[in-house]
Design brief:
Chain B: Pfam families: Cys_Met_Meta_PP (PF01053). The structure holds two protein chains of two kinds. Chain A is an alpha/beta fold. Chain A has helices at residues 49-53, 78-92, 104-115, 136-143, 148-157, 160-163, 178-187, 193-203, 207-213, 231-238, 256-259, 261-271; strands at 10-11, 14-15, 18-19, 31-35, 58-62, 97-102, 120-126, 218-223, 244-249. In chain A, helix 3 links the parallel strand 6 (97-102) and strand 7 (120-126).
């Protein structure tokens, strides 16, 4: 029987924080695990998790080890994160779950689906590409805890909705400002964590092979203006997955969940056959 | 590799928060005079009401025109988000009501706008929220005034009307040591002259009526969330860290992380207290914000010239000026601090006294004659207009203060407050000159 109260949840002996979208886990509902990207936490899903939890899903928006409110140290490779997600399912008592991941989290969801196929119902990969090489200067800045690393990530990560200008501008959430909000979210992550995460992305070379091994349905949500994981590279990855569908979101950069929350929700709702409770 | 690129401040005053209207192509921000918004379907309506999807429901809570101003001001301040309100007073009230309830305590600078002081000293105690006022230059006094039930430290970058400069970094550190946030009223400086978040503040508010709007037309306020204060770690803010029945048990800090305060301020504060900004006013204020850098440069240029003129009067044998206060002057007590926090200018408010007022009334009569002789400066209760303004604080904006409080606020009977506008500086000097002569002729 799956847990319903995750207050004191631990995975491999380490305290783990899981946001459940504003309502407790319900063993009768299919679960979806939301896996954040490098240097982030569960908060990147704030415009999706609540909707999912009120549309038929048990939601587990995790803080990966070393991130947000979870304890422990950040995991050093995509494979370790994938294995940790499966360990999380074990700890909660879930046999299967859908996995939705963003960027680094998308690679982890892909890897988990390839190597732990029996545990993964479906995968939704947001802002993903076959390779995610990280510029050595950015990697060095992130490892050194230099704040310029955060500026580089959010600068490259946002499309016109975040940067504004003659063609863009306008946060989907009334009154919020995308780039300052992303900067604060990342600034709250512990020193050195971003460097570990980016190294994990940089070092993962198995995406193409993993895609070929995925047996469950896959949704790829890609930003048409994504400069970190260009849509073209995401499509290439999708073509290697036996059962995949691609949604390209116009005007969106890499930070899809905050730049285009409704488009992301609409894609997830169709893919996971969500219905209001 | 190339560094990160973001639009600069002057560009953001024109563009942040807006793109050409997708429906019409309108380049200017459309004025959305609508109370409410048609739902796409029942599910979307339910999702909006339960904060599952972002969007507009009813213009008391959010409005597309107002949202552009909110995002623009948040961007200019470097904050995660903002809520615009019916006035600056509504912004202060909203911030306080979001943070605390009965039993809450505030430590505030004694040198603040008289209206803010009225709220804190006379009105909020009726609702169980009390305030201790402290000289803003007395850092030890601020620290000593903080109690276990204190939930906020509040001050103005430039005190009104005494022009004391608040040591924002030091006061922020004192507040943070006690696990409470620092709210700064940044009305007198605007983000063009000072961004309090860069100096450690947690929340910023403005009366948008003043320099942001800049033309003395529309009343409005804003509270901006810096997004850095750790409400969870503090443990003193259940409104942000405990389940809220008003939205099915939502925990704002868990749900929205850095945007917890601003999301609660809107979802509860605007929804329930209802002091929202009208879209017409938001449009007017947006027009002002678009020229904020140009106007602030003009305000500062003229202010420095007028300060120079008043100093000439001060130091000349037959001059009519008894004293001049402006933080850029070498003899101002906060001169060094102003140079550090306000390198682009210390605002466009000057206070001064008239020499030889006589009559044993502390200069009040000379001040009356001066104000009534002015022809270009308008005598009214406002600051930050494009037009130059004048007032006698002791008998108007700060009239509710008793003698002791007036002294604590640095408001003398002879104090004249000038708000320097954008007229030709020579004309302003001529007007001041003739009024000073009229005041001292007796």
């Amino acid at each position: 029987m799956p847990l319903t109260d995750l207050t004191d949840l631990t995975v491999r002996g380490v305290p783990v924080f899981v946001h459940t979208g504003g309502r407790p886990l319900d063993p009768a509902r299919p679960a979806v695990v939301l896996i954040h990207g490098a240097g982030m936490d569960h908060g990147v899903w704030s415009l999706q998790s609540r909707y999912l939890a009120h549309h038929g899903r048990s939601v587990l928006a995790v803080d990966l080890p070393g991130h947000g409110r979870s304890g422990g140290e950040p995991l050093g490779s995509i494979a370790e994160i994938a294995d940790w997600v499966v360990a999380l399912l074990d700890a909660v008592g879930l046999e299967r779950a859908a996995l939705a991941g963003h960027s680094m989290g998308a690679l982890a969801a892909l890897d988990a689906a390839a190597r732990h196929g029996g545990r993964v119902e479906a995968i939704a990969l947001l802002g993903v590409a076959e390779r995610m090489p990280v510029h050595p200067d950015l990697l060095a800045a992130a490892r050194a805890g230099d704040p310029s690393a955060i500026d580089l990530v959010i600068g490259w990560g946002h499309g016109p909705r975040g940067h504004g200008g003659a063609s863009g501008g306008g946060c989907p959430v009334p009154g919020l400002a995308l780039i300052p909000a992303a900067r604060r979210l990342m600034a709250a992550v512990r020193p050195g964590v971003l460097g570990v995460d980016l190294a994990a992305c940089d070092g993962y070379g198995q995406a193409a092979d993993a895609a070929g091994a995925v047996g469950c349905p896959a949704l790829l949500v890609l930003g048409a203006q994504d400069r970190m994981t260009p849509a073209k590279a995401g499509r290439a990855l999708a073509s290697r997955i036996a059962s995949s569908q691609v949604v390209v979101v116009p005007q969106a950069g890499h930070m899809l969940m905050s730049e285009a929350p409704d488009a992301v929700l609409d894609a997830l709702a169709a893919f996971l056959s969500l219905r209001r409770d | 590799m190339a560094g990160a690129k973001f639009l600069k401040f002057d560009t953001q005053t024109l563009h942040a928060g807006q793109r050409p209207d997708p429906a019409t192509g309108a380049r200017a921000v459309p004025i959305h005079l609508t109370s409410s918004y048609v739902f796409e379907n029942v599910d979307q309506a339910a999702a909006l009401f339960n904060l599952e999807r972002p969007g507009h429901i009813y213009s008391r809570i959010s409005n597309p025109t107002v949202a552009v101003l909110e995002e623009r001001l948040a961007t200019l301040e470097g904050g995660v988000g903002a809520v615009c309100t019916a006035s600056g007073q509504a912004a202060l009230t909203l911030a306080i009501m979001t943070l605390m309830g009965t039993g809450g305590h505030i430590v505030a600078s004694a040198s603040i706008y008289g209206g803010s002081r009225n709220l804190l000293a006379y009105t909020l105690p009726r609702f169980g929220i009390t305030t201790t006022f402290v000289n803003p230059r007395d850092l030890d006094g601020i620290r000593a005034a903080i109690r276990p039930e204190t939930r906020l430290v509040f001050g103005e970058v430039l005190g009104n009307p005494g022009l004391e400069v608040l040591d924002v970094p030091s006061v922020a550190a004192i507040a943070h040591d006690a696990g409470i946030p620092l709210l700064i009223d940044s009305t007198f400086t605007t983000p063009y002259l000072c961004r309090p978040f860069d100096h450690g503040a947690d929340l910023v508010m403005h009366s948008c009526t003043k320099w942001l709007g800049g033309h003395g037309t529309a009343i409005g306020g804003v509270v901006v969330d810096g997004g850095r204060f750790d409400w969870e770690a503090s443990g003193k803010f259940p409104t942000l860290t405990e389940p809220y029945a008003g939205y099915h048990g939502i925990d704002f800090a868990e749900e929205y992380g850095p945007a917890a305060f601003v999301m609660r301020a809107r979802a509860e504060g605007l929804r329930d207290f209802g002091a929202c900004m009208s879209p017409m006013n938001a449009f007017q204020i947006l027009q002002g914000v678009e020229t904020l850098p140009l106007r602030m440069r003009g305000h500062i240029h003229n202010t420095r010239k007028i300060v120079g003129f008043l100093e000439e009067e001060l130091y000349s044998e037959k001059g009519a000026v008894a004293w001049v206060s402006y933080p850029e002057l070498a003899d101002h007590p906060d001169h060094a601090l102003a140079a550090r926090l306000l390198p682009h200018g210390a605002g466009s408010i000057i206070s001064f006294g008239i020499r030889g007022g006589g009559g044993g009334d502390g200069g009040r009569e000379a001040g009356r004659r001066f104000i009534e002789a002015l022809t270009l400066f308008s005598h009214l209760a406002n600051v930050g207009d494009a037009k130059s303004l004048v007032i006698h604080p002791a008998s108007t904006t700060h009239a509710q203060l008793d003698a002791e409080a007036l002294a604590a606020a640095g408001v003398g009977e002879d104090m004249i407050r000038l708000s320097i506008g954008l007229e030709d500086c020579g004309d302003l000097v001529d007007d001041l000159k003739q009024a000073l002569r009229a005041a001292t002729r007796g």
